[in-house]
């Protein structure tokens, strides 16, 4: 009975004995209370170090309470009767020790481990405190004490690094925080409180030269900061622009063009309402448009298929039509991995609006990095973008974070427990 109870409670110390028939549930309380005894013959004195056990005598008992992890949806407390010893050699006293609970503490190691494991879930710290029967300040201390487990390995860096930024806390030094991930294992490596070139360079300069030279590919969006790191930090790396950001950049420009056209129309006009309602249809790839089924539309009662209806929308403005053609060319060339078609699209001399010309100009400036994306199409910032969604969820369910340091630790704990190794990428030599 004693051993079964110890197994259920996760007690591995052989010197602790659970007293039979002592499990109680006081009236009006939800806490299970058990009684136990901790007694053994010490081999040495922890005060003076004497090894002669005959110099150590039993000197009564001390009563302590140990909080254990919840069991059967109830809080569990162990009333532990611990042996008190006296050393005749140094005339000092000490208490029987156990690996169940840290010295001078009442919360068991198992409760602390349960707390750390629950910190990997996207719930608030108050909710975790309730789950493990502790205070939220204890959960905060447990989080802060875990920082030693997240020191970066300065001797190793992955061959392929994904880089991005995210909004963190007001206490962070920069408006946006920098984050980077191993593209091979999808493991989040670290989060910095600023994304400026100076801060990122200072961080990576702590790594060994061998580690920095081992980086072969940096996958990122079109942020101008990250390509500069290749010149100063990663001498053997190439920059690959994420394919999603290539298209997204042009889509934003086209949407601004559409809004600009709408501003020149009367709000009550059919053209304005049609552009407002069917804006998603304009972003649909041309290859996926339905050209077989004809039906009437909300703002056009004629029997039209999707391709005909889009032609009607584009007839409202010549710049909208030319912008749509460029957008479709770029989307098709990225999907088919056709570099020549992509170059033709971004260097088009069509009648484009200023809002559409801006993203094309950005693509022309970053042609080398975009070309690397066409040559190395297996690389994507998708895993890091998915991580960003999880980070935003952590922030939202935790009702925000004041301290960036705490926010960073919470993120690293979450992804340390969650990440799994994926299949390796092969770096394409340019």
Automatic annotation (TrEMBL):
Residues 162-411 form the Transposase IS204/IS1001/IS1096/IS1165 DDE domain. InterPro entries: Transpos_ISL3, Transposase_DDE. This is Transposase IS204/IS1001/IS1096/IS1165 DDE domain-containing protein. It comes from Pediococcus argentinicus.
